[in-house]
Amino acid sequence: MQKILNYINGELVAPISDSYIENIDPSTGKIYSLCADSDDHDVALATDAALAAFPAWSNTSSSDRSKVMLKIAALIEENLEALALAESIDQGKPLWLAKNGEIPRAQANIHFFGTAIEHFASEAHPMGNHALNYTLRTPIGVVACISPWNLPLYLFTWKIAPALAAGNCVVAKPSEVTPMTAFLFSKICIEAGLPKGVLNIVHGLGPKVGAALTSHPNIPVISFTGGTKTGAEIARVAAPMFKKLSLELGGKNPNIIFADCDFEKTVKESVRASFTNQGEICLCGSRIYIEASIYEKFKSAFVEEVKKLKVGDPLLPQTKVGAIASQLHYDKILGYIDLAKEEGGTILCGGKTAAVEERCKDGFFIEPTVIEGLNHLCRTNQEEIFGPVVTLQKFETEEEVIEFANSNNYGLACILFTENLTRAHRVAAAVKSGIVWVNCWLLRDLRTPFGGMKQSGVGREGGWEALRFFTEPKNVCIKL
Ligand code: NAD
Q: Are residues 158 and 258 in the same domain?
């Protein structure tokens, strides 16, 4: 069976303990590869390799760093088919989605920061003829990048790219649930000629590898994407060590639909925002608030569209909703559907496991589920489910829906549909979330600040924000 190895000091190596975690294909429920079950010893080796590589890498010119990153980006493009297939098998997402969305975005992440670094500049603050201040922005050292399972290579590269471009060395940890594309990525880095030790990838469990990275005294920067509880644990360990932290955490995003929306487009886009990647995207809109005058009309059109979504084998082109990433997560989602019923919710469609034939008969599939009749403050509407489950609720006024939207501890993204431009600006300013999409969803420009408020995170990724995060600013003041 294929072994997923660590990438340390430019080489693919077995974990020191030589133990492995079973890696399961969620569409079949069967073990299909073995992932390195690393520990603090492997993290120590990787960190030493990164420390040794840092002086040379941080001293290369930005154009030299750019060159090797563009080679990596080109190799991702060349290996699109293999990477997309690996991602689909590992995570359960439809193959077409990996091929058209996720892997091209991973390529774009590397390409974007590989070119951005050539344009990165710092500031000068002249004080007339009196003095001149200028800001140096230097690479920091060895940084840890820890990523989740829902968009594996996409989110992994989104962190690594700005860290490397800015001249840092990296020890990265992909999710143990979906390690395959990070392993293939390490082979790409070797082929591209990335100098040894610049990027190290250590596979394994969060409480072992992740915790060892978080507490390592020679890693002063942590960029983390994952659940809010894990983020809190990382912050607890990192704060007394005064580490620099970027935390991209959970979401429970409102999707607000006003009566003056473009109805057909709104229904279509809301279905996409609810169920893409089985609803396993932190940006999905899971609380759908609909203005009372169009509630019934929207409900029937939306449910009709949702019922058409084909749940099935992720490798088939007609599949719209694939497998849930793991048995653990599948059980959690089903538990939330039971909770919604206990809380008085009515299931309008879905609400149970989906039977998928043949090779996928033992996989983890759940029907896209739409629920109504719940209060905005109940647990179903407050906690992140992170699956193919949405709730519908009506509202009477703009003030009321802003209150509903902001009634949650998360504040990652908000989606709103209206043809009234003034209202769009007003509501966008009033909702407490780091990202607002008006009449669209997941339209991304990599230059924009990306991240959440409240329990959805601390800091922003993307564009200059990311390059600034991965550099240390130093002001130099010269008396003239
Ligand atoms: P998770 O928090 O369980 O795991 C994320 C990563 O952290 C994994 O690599 C895991 O091994 C590691 N980890 C676990 N325990 C750790 C510890 N004690 N110390 C250090 N690392 C540890 O999250 P998940 O289940 O993989 O991902 C789903 C979550 O990620 C959802 O809450 C989702 O909203 C969130 N997410 C957020 C964004 C965003 O941009 N804000 C994007 C995608 C996913």
A: no
